[in-house]
Amino acid sequence: MTSALTARGLTKRYGRRTALAECTLEIPAGRVVALVGPNGAGKSTLLNLAAGLIRPTSGEIEVLGDTPACSPDQLARVGFVAQDAPTYAGLTVADHLELGRRLNPRWDHRLAERRIDDLALDPRQKAGRLSGGQRAQLALTLALAKRPELLLLDEPAASLDPLARRELLQGLMTHVVDHGASVVLSSHLVSDLERVCDHVVVLTGSHVQLAADLDEVTGTHYRLTGDARDLDELPPGAELVHSTGTDRHRTVVVRSALPVVGDRTQVEPLGMEDVVLAYMARAASPAPRPDSPAEAVR
Fold first, then answer.
1. Which of 18, 53, 138, 232 gives 20 to 30 Å between its CA and that of 84?
2. How buried is 14 (Cβ within 10 angstroms: 0-12 exposed, 13-18 middle, 19+ buried)?
3. How far apart are CA 25 and CA 16, in angstroms?
4. Angle between helices 132-145 and 162-179 (to 10 degrees)
5. Beta strands in the chain (DSSP E)
6. Which residue pairs from 74-77 have beta carbons closer than 8 angstroms and sit at least 24 positions apart in sequence?
7. How far apart are CA 102 and CA 247, in angstroms?
8. Domain spans of the chain?
9. Per-residue pLDDT for the chain (298 aa), expressed as one digit of tens each?
10. Closest Cα partner for 189 from 213, 223, 156, 150?
11. What is the pTM of this model?
């Protein structure tokens, strides 16, 4: 099956600033992907490159086996909702659906009207008078009604309250189950993503730190806590992700394909949020001293 997204040495620079650096990544088709990382990590840049809104400085990117935005057919296969969930303030909800029908050859008008009805949006209401949550739902409706094979969502729920976030994500997952699509969903709200995603990409400092299925991520990362001397040597086959503590007591996060059992240390398997935070902390940490256990990952 064709990958949903493939990047090879993908780099985007704006003058002297590097927004994305040497990104090599493959996202399998049919996944709901959590794209996570701090502000400025390159998440929006990667999604805009995938949507064909900007071009790479160097490297390559393929979306559904082709160059982004290379043809009307390729554009029709990809849906994109930008971070501010853009809508036209002066157009009504019904106007937006009509615009979507005229511009998209795969447009599913019945799906769009059904979602608007389920969301209790007034078709006569202008988008500028809708709440933030309602505008986000309208933007998502327009993207879903394209019937895309790949849906790119950049922080679609960032400004929403918890109930509105839940409703938006539930609507998204209902569509994925009913119609099938690959989804890449960027968000800071890792706890929300863990409920709906089955693949994780961690992007920090414009570099990919981790890309794997969620089961693999949660099944191969452990937190080890104990005496610093007992943690000078990691378990066989374990890769150090991040280390914190003092000369006497230390906590380390490791990645290991083999189960980790501690004789004199406490071992705890990690969920997605803790794994993501560990990689973000590693990227934010200063370079380790030569005698530091963190040198194991250099």
1. 18
2. exposed
3. 24
4. 10
5. 5-14, 17-27, 32-36, 58-63, 78-81, 150-154, 182-186, 199-204, 207-213, 221-227, 239-245, 249-255, 266-269
6. 76/104, 76/105, 76/106, 76/146, 76/148, 77/148, 77/149, 77/150
7. 66
8. 5-205, 216-297
9. 579 999 999 999 999 999 999 999 999 998 999 999 988 899 999 999 999 999 999 999 999 999 999 999 999 999 999 988 889 999 999 999 999 999 999 999 999 999 999 999 999 999 999 988 889 889 999 999 999 999 999 988 776 778 878 887 887 888 787 777 899 999 888 888 888 899 999 999 888 999 999 999 999 999 999 998 888 888 888 999 999 998 899 999 999 999 888 778 899 999 999 999 999 998 877 544 434 444 333 3
10. 156
11. 0.88
Who's near 76: CB < 8 A, 6+ residues apart? Answer: 104, 105, 106, 146, 148
Q: Which residues contact 136 (CB under 8 A, 6 or more apart)?
A: 81, 85, 156, 157, 159, 160, 164, 168
Q: Are 269 and 225 in contact (CB under 8 A)?
A: no
- Identify the sign of the CA torsion 195, 199, 202, 203: negative
CATH superfamily of 5-205: P-loop containing nucleotide triphosphate hydrolases (3.40.50.300)
